[in-house]
Design brief:
The structure is a homodimer. Chain A is of the alpha+beta class. Chain A has helices at about 5-10, 15-25, 80-85, 110-115, 120-145, 150-160, 160-165, 170-175, 180-185; strands at about 30, 35-40, 45-50, 55-60, 65-75, 80, 95, 100-105. In chain A, helix 4 (about 110-115) crosses helix 5. The longest helix of chain A is centred in the C-terminal third of the chain and has 27 residues, at about 120-145. The model of chain A has no long low-confidence stretch (mean pLDDT about 95). The interface of A and B includes residues 133, 137 and 174 of A. The structure holds a DNA duplex.
DNA sequence: CTTAAACATTGACAAATGTTAAAAAATCAT
DNA sequence: ATGATTTTTTAACATTTGTCAATGTTTAAG
């Protein structure tokens, strides 16, 4: 049930079995179904989630009432609403399962506790922040310099799972365009 | 000459005077003039820079030969090409002074050394990564859900320095649009 | 001060994307 | 399986943004 996370940790950091046991004991398994909401707008984000299987997205709803997907986490990735989690203030975003799957959750208190007692956890946190930042920077790049078609092709190259496994609706609002535009784009291949 | 960084550190982390002295001794002052290149495309980024005065941008050049500005650091902000710096591999981006100013540089080796010997430096690094991630996430939001006019207004609200102090050319390519579009946008106010 | 270079604005037109509506296709719950 | 719901595609049209070219303005070097 936590084997996947254990394997991920083993590959990512040099932890002793004791470290691993402490870390794994902090995570709680949750089975989620597609469309389940893990965090609502205006709630404080109290967990970091590790995706064992399936996928989770972070999205918000803009003034016009449209959904906009900011990030999608697949297997072996962490997701949270970092700003809300760090400061324990209300989130502007939602967290939602985009597929049926298993996730592991660690609470804010346990997370803080691990930072305090396990140096290796701090190192993992730094590594994950670096990855998250870099991923975001690439995504930003794609918006600054590419048009919709180019962003679609780039997504297909760098993260085809988004296109292969999720609905056009979500793919479109992850790319920052309408479903209709996406539909046309795919025709223009 | 390093007073500004010292003050910034004092406000950001709880460091002893000894910690501060060690940290400050790693930074080297550089005077930069507008348009000076601090890092070229295809070079390995060997420093993290702290902006004491002026501003520094990270930008890249796309296939069509257009510049696209991904990030701009002003006073009391750090800037580097994180990916290149962490992995000590070639950068796809440039670093350039966008105003005359003073910056403080810390080398990769000293940075690593501080991470190793000063717990407080690790904490500062985490804090800066969190800030960088959050800032990026907001910027991403603006691209996903807003059109150019809205992005401009949002930028004016959240970081007017960009508009007030830098050329239209840079503002435009920071917003992901052409100079001409920006010019029209400003008229439509 | 003068001139060349860089930057900013404007207009005409083209291309990309959004909007609205409808129909076709896929999915889901019974 | 069947009907209802959701998702995807298509089309016509509106709006936004890009491209190109010309002109005005500012900046910087000599």
């Amino acid at each position: 049930m936590t084997e996947q996370l254990e394997q991920f940790l083993t590959l990512t950091i040099k932890a002793t079995q004791q470290d691993l046991d402490i870390i794994l004991s902090c995570f709680k398994l949750e089975m989620v179904k597609k469309n389940d909401i893990l965090l609502n707008d205006n709630e404080t984000c109290k967990h970091v989630f590790f995706v064992s299987s399936g996928s989770i997205r972070a999205f918000f709803i803009d003034e016009k009432g449209n959904e906009a997907t900011r990030y999608i986490a697949f297997e072996n990735e962490f997701i949270t609403i970092l700003n809300s989690f760090i400061t324990q203030t209300k989130s502007k975003e939602f967290l939602q399962a985009t597929e049926n799957g298993q996730i592991l959750a660690i609470s804010y208190d346990d997370f803080r506790q691990l930072l305090y007692i396990l140096p290796i956890w701090k190192d993992l946190y730094i590594k994950q922040l670096e990855i998250a930042y870099t991923t975001n920077a690439w995504r930003l790049e794609s918006f600054i310099k590419m048009d919709a078609k180019e962003r679609f092709d780039y997504l297909f190259e760098t993260n085809p799972r988004v296109i292969q496994r999720l609905s056009n609706k979500i793919v479109a609002n992850y790319l920052g365009i309408t479903q209709e535009s996406l539909s046309r784009l795919k025709g223009k291949k």
